[in-house]
Amino acid sequence: MKRKSFGEFECCIARALDEIGDPWSFLILRHALLGARRFSDFEDALEIPSSTLARRLLDLTERGLVTRRLFDERPPRVDYELTDKGRELLPMVLLLASWGERWASPLGAPLELVDAKTGTRVEPMVVDRATGRELLPGTVALRPGPSASPELSQAVLTRRPVFGAAL
Amino acid sequence: MKRKSFGEFECCIARALDEIGDPWSFLILRHALLGARRFSDFEDALEIPSSTLARRLLDLTERGLVTRRLFDERPPRVDYELTDKGRELLPMVLLLASWGERWASPLGAPLELVDAKTGTRVEPMVVDRATGRELLPGTVALRPGPSASPELSQAVLTRRPVFGAAL
Question: Which of A108, A136, B70, B163 is packed most tightly, with the most Cβ within 10 A?
């Protein structure tokens, strides 16, 4: 199954979705963030057909989210490790988990986020790095960036309801 | 095309992915967060076949992310509005945009996030709501929550590399 490439849109979100791929790839990244490294780690955790898993891991490697590390052992051992690009998805994964807990887990969360040292519950919140203010609908807007095409810049200026409104 | 339901996994992330659906649905939500309301708003912005768009909007409505509002006008007018469940995806969309700008936009961002009032650039960061500390790899861990099955709880305790490691 070949899906349309979203990477061609003039939109960082579409490009990100194009990179991260599909829900399976996202769940593989989630497990890598949780410490999975071996093929069998992912296989056990996801109950995914091994051919599907192999294809997704290759795809994630080619996209630079994961890197293959070979160990000179017998039998040979391969680890799949996250790159910086992959590791920087952690905050988004935490938010997705938090949203899923709130809106898609009527019986409560199967797993809870806690501080690794203290064990206290953690609630992810998105703020602006410079001011520390929470980013909420209505407080954020968009403007054309360095790579905006003339068409996009024009659209931001004239079609406010679609492109230029405060988020 | 029917994809496997991720909602059955004991994982808030998988459930969230199941709710949000696929990349098209995510981009529809993105435009709704930016102020798109009419069918034609989404159609113009996404250049998506109208049958695909209609199906995704219906799906998002059934999942409670979007609600249809009918206006008693001639010709009749329908708006698609985000529910609280849909609106609460904003922080995640901002993070995805930020990641996409950093890792998937070599020529710079086509659109930049700014403060709606001041126009200053905004950089989303994820912190713990109670302490204000940034949530980074290694600072967060998981523990079984209220709806964890005995199998999952056991797995968290014994298979640390996959389930219980610090994120």
Answer: B163
Give the C-alpha separation, A30 to B12, whole Å. 11
Q: Answer whether residue B4 shows pLDDT above 80.
A: no
What is the spatial distance between Cα B157 and Cα B164, in angstroms, rounded to a whole number?
7
Residue B148 has pLDDT above 50, yes or no: yes
Q: For residue range B71-125, what is the model confidence (pLDDT) as tens digits?
A: 988 888 899 999 999 999 888 888 988 888 889 888 888 888 888 888 899 999 9
- Mapping DSSP onto H, E and C, the string for B98-143 reads HHHHHHHCCCCCCEEEEECCCCCECCEEEEECCCCCECCCCCEEEE
**Residue A146 CB neighbours (<10 A):** 10
* CA nearest to B84, candidates A103, A140, A93, A101: A103
For A109-155, the pLDDT digits (tens) are 888 888 888 889 999 999 999 999 999 877 888 888 888 888 777 76
Q: How far is B76 from chain A, CA to nearest CA, in Å?
A: 20
The pLDDT confidence band at residue B138, using thresholds 50, 70 and 90, is confident
- ipTM value for the complex: 0.83
Q: Does B44 touch chain A (CB under 8 A)?
A: yes
119-148 in B: which are within 8 Å (CB) of A?
119-120, 122-130, 132, 135-148
Measured distance CA(B101)–CA(B107) in Å, rounded: 9
CA distance B54 to chain A (A): 18
Chain B residues within an 8 Å CB radius of A127 = 124-127
A70 near B CB under 8 A: no
